Amino acid sequence: MSFTASLSTKGKTAVITLAGSLNDNPSAEEFREKVATAAGQGIERLVLEMSQLETLSAAGLRGLAFCKEKMPNGVDIVFVAPTDKVRLAIEDVGFQQSVTISDQFTL
Fold it and tell me: For 44-94, what is each residue's pLDDT tens digit?
């Protein structure tokens, strides 16, 4: 399946909605571009909406790590509604220790 990432902002919150397979360098680059754009907007919270994200490979995990690197200090990162498969990939590398994982999020 292909990958899409869309960015929206409301106030000091940026939401990146992820769908498909974040499993190769082109998809990871698209994701990193959205993160970099969000980081430049003076946000306080970055929300990654993951309910439609089907797979997450090592390239995708590196993209998630990029979020932590790119965001200014103090920006909260929230992963919303990852599928069981995606959540397992996140937990396998211990990434859940540096972000918040939530079943739902409202602005």
Answer: 999 999 999 999 999 899 989 999 899 999 999 999 999 999 999 999 999
pTM of the predicted protein model: 0.94
Q: Name the 3-class secondary structure at 102.
A: strand
Classify each residue of 47-76 as buried b or exposed e, where b means 16 or more C-beta atoms within 10 Å of its C-beta: bbbbeebbbbbebbbebbebbeeebeeebe
Structural tokens at position 28: 């990871």
Assess contact for 67 and 46: CB atoms under 8 A. Answer: yes
Q: Which residues pair with 20 in a beta bridge?
A: 3, 53
Contact 68, 34 (CB under 8 A): no
